[in-house]
């Protein structure tokens, strides 16, 4: 009986359910060690990584990972270009010159090159491709026929009557937020999001939410983010979330699940839901 259900993020196609559960437990144990009387609660980690393994039609129509359909390309381009706001004409021209180093069009469609260059310029080399990877899986969840249904069902199979806390990392944060918003997990009292792309306007528009205020009902929502995590856009989710917890995951891999789970802030947010359910 899992009181807490954790939902993983992107790029887990080569993982397994057993590996995911071990990563979550081992990392969360470190976070729980940083809070008074903290211990890892009963935990389930549904696995949907197989959906996005190499050759999956959920990522591209013909199984080729480089292939974008036009609507997907537009979605990714819009989200990348959120980093272009406020740049001068000379800065935009400089970005256009730098796109020559980003590889041939077969790797990235030309419409994405300026946005990737802008993300790399702000967040560091390679971060643009990370955001592209996240956005492609978010797009698949939202728009590829069947993908969202399969992922939500995988999560719901692990949610039981005793489940009180949903924790989502990366794409997983979009999934758990969507489930709460749909009213499909009425027993859940606490939502914890880690490294969430819900801060990107393009993602919110696709979900048809404005974040002018919370639409998660009575569910308490805590968000943990690193300002150097490119997936978060460097910002929190208030006022939609009741509270934001900024953390420092280090500059080498600020989006890593293992680093988010090791923080006392994450452990405390999870325990607030676990202990609240026992009172």
Describe what is shown at a glance.
By secondary structure, the chain is α/β, with parallel strands linked by helices. Helices cover 42% and strands 9% of the residues.
What structural keywords apply?
279 residues, alpha/beta, Rossmann fold, 2 domains, six-stranded parallel β-sheet, 10 helices, 6 strands
* Count of domains: 2
Number of DSSP strand runs: 6
Oligomer: single chain
Q: Which architecture of the largest domain does the CATH hierarchy give at level 2?
A: 3-Layer(aba) Sandwich
Poorly predicted tracts of residues: none
Account of the protein in words:
The protein is globular and about 55 Å long. With 279 residues, the protein is α/β, with parallel strands linked by helices. It has a six-stranded parallel sheet, sandwiched between helices. It has two domains: 4-52 and 145-278, Rossmann fold (3-Layer(aba) Sandwich); 70-143, no CATH class. α2 runs parallel beside α4 (110-123), α2 (70-80) packs across α5 (127-143) and α5 (127-143) crosses α6. It has helices at 17-32, 70-80, 89-98, 110-123, 127-143, 147-156, 171-182, 201-207, 257-261, 264-278; strands spanning 4-7, 43-44, 165-169, 190-194, 220-225, 243-246. α1 (17-32) links the parallel β1 (4-7) and β2.
Task: Note the topology.
Elements: E1 4-7, H1 17-32, E2 43-44, H2 70-80, H3 89-98, H4 110-123, H5 127-143, H6 147-156, E3 165-169, H7 171-182, E4 190-194, H8 201-207, E5 220-225, E6 243-246, H9 257-261, H10 264-278
Parallel strand pairs: 1-2, 1-3, 3-4, 4-5, 5-6
Helix pairs in contact: 2-4, 2-5, 3-4, 4-5, 5-6
């Amino acid at each position: 009986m899992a009181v807490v259900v954790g939902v993983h993020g992107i790029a887990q196609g080569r993982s397994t359910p057993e590996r995911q559960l071990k990563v979550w437990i081992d990392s969360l144990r470190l976070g729980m060690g940083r809070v008074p009387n903290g211990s890892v609660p009963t935990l389930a980690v549904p696995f949907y990584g197989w959906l996005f393994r190499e050759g999956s039609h959920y990522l591209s129509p013909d199984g080729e990972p480089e292939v974008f359909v036009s609507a997907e390309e537009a979605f990714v381009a819009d989200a990348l270009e959120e980093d272009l706001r406020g740049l001068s004409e000379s800065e935009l021209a400089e970005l256009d010159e730098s796109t020559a180093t980003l590889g041939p069009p077969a790797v990235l469609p030309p419409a994405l090159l300026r946005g990737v260059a802008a993300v790399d310029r702000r967040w560091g080399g390679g971060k643009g491709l990370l955001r592209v990877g996240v956005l492609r899986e978010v797009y698949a969840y939202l728009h590829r026929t069947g993908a969202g249904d399969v992922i939500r069902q995988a999560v719901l199979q692990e949610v039981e009557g005793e489940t009180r806390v949903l924790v989502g990392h990366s794409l997983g944060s979009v999934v758990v937020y969507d489930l709460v918003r749909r009213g499909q997990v009425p027993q859940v009292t606490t939502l914890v999001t880690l490294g969430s792309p819900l801060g990107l306007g393009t993602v919110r528009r696709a979900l048809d939410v404005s974040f002018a205020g919370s639409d998660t009902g009575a569910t308490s929502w805590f968000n943990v983010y690193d300002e150097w995590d490119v997936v978060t856009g460097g910002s929190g989710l208030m006022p939609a979330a009741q509270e934001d917890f900024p953390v420092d995951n280090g500059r080498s891999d600020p989006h890593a699940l293992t680093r988010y789970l090791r923080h006392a802030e994450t452990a405390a947010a999870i325990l607030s839901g676990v202990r609240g359910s026992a009172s």
